[in-house]
Design brief:
The chain is α+β, with helices and mostly antiparallel strands. It contains 5 helices and 10 strands, in the order E-E-H-E-H-E-E-E-H-E-E-E-E-H-H. It has helices at about 30-40, 50-60, 110-125, 235-255, 260-265, and strands at about 5, 15-20, 45-50, 75-80, 85-95, 95-100, 135-150, 175-190, 190-205, 205-220. Strands 1, 2, 3, 4, 5, 6, 7, 8, 9 and 10 form a 10-stranded antiparallel beta sheet that branches. Strand 8 and strand 9 form a beta hairpin. The two termini are about 35 Å apart.
Length: about 280
């Protein structure tokens, strides 16, 4: 019998990305101080200078939110490379953004440590501890499910029957396909939340794979402060990321069928709607 299984065994997360974007680039001195923090990280020994053109072609993935910069800034890439040449961990530092990408996800508590030990100190340095200078706080995840067996796998082998975000007309399809959906929610005077996903069914002979990209971000309108969740700067940033993680879990629960949810130990109702 053919079936989908989580690509990472106990979970399906192939890549997780966390990052913040500022409304305006920080001053050169603050940027240099942030680079010094990154350079002191022993787990990221490799480094590459990225010019503005490299940033323009997809290196930086954090959404722009309400404010699209008019000028691209160069950046620095800090990373750890696997013996096979693949990237395991990657930190991109710009004057207007910090992004951490891991291809070694184990559990959310590990990402929380990255946020606390890397993202927050650098963001604090670049903003002077002022949350109102932050434009976007974002979480991105890529989940992978591998198709096993020789029989064709219909989409319903992965997706729930009554999903509110996957059209029912797709459920019986067993061909390669792509589904994209996104929306803004919880909009207020202070800002909005972006929820976005891409589902791709692709062939990697001899097996089929399902890749699910999820994007969840909090975006400030620069009126009030959408990121003031706790007393301190770092505590507030971590609280925002925890909220985004809960929304992401709720989104997965709206997409995956019961068997797939059980396969990745997805908790029950998070109490936060993904819609």
């Amino acid at each position: 019998m053919s079936q989908y299984v989580p690509g990472a065994g106990a979970h399906a997360v192939e890549q997780a990305v966390v990052g913040i974007r500022l409304f305006e680039p920080c001053d050169p001195a603050s940027y240099d101080n942030a680079l010094a923090i990154a350079a002191a990280l022993p787990e990221l020994p490799a480094r590459i200078q990225l010019d503005a053109m490299a940033m323009a072609f997809g290196r930086q993935v954090i959404s722009h939110g309400y404010h699209v910069p008019t000028q691209l800034e160069p950046g620095m890439l800090f990373s750890r490379i696997r013996p096979d040449g693949g990237t395991e961990e990657e930190l991109t530092v710009e004057r207007g953004a910090v992004t951490y990408r891991t291809n070694n996800y184990k559990r959310w508590t590990d990402v929380q440590k990255i946020i606390s030990d890397v993202i927050c100190p650098m963001a604090d340095c670049m903003t002077g501890g002022d949350l109102s200078k932050i434009s976007v706080v974002e979480l991105r995840c890529i989940d992978r499910f591998d198709g096993l067996g020789d029989d064709p796998l219909c989409l319903k082998s992965l997706v729930k029957q009554n999903s509110r975000v996957i059209p029912s007309a797709y459920l019986e399809k067993d061909e390669m396909l792509h589904i994209h959906c996104g929306w803004f929610q919880n909009k207020s005077e202070n800002g909005r939340y972006l929820v976005n996903f891409n589902l791709d069914i692709v062939e990697y002979p001899p097996n089929r794979k399902a890749n699910l990209l999820q994007v969840v971000s909090a975006q400030s309108s620069q009126v009030g402060n959408i990121f003031s969740k706790k007393e301190g700067f770092s505590e507030s940033i971590l609280a925002v990321f925890d909220e985004l993680h809960a929304i992401d879990k709720s989104l997965l629960a709206e997409i995956l069928n019961e068997d797939m949810q059980k396969s990745i130990s997805l908790a029950g109702d998070t109490g936060i709607s993904a819609l």
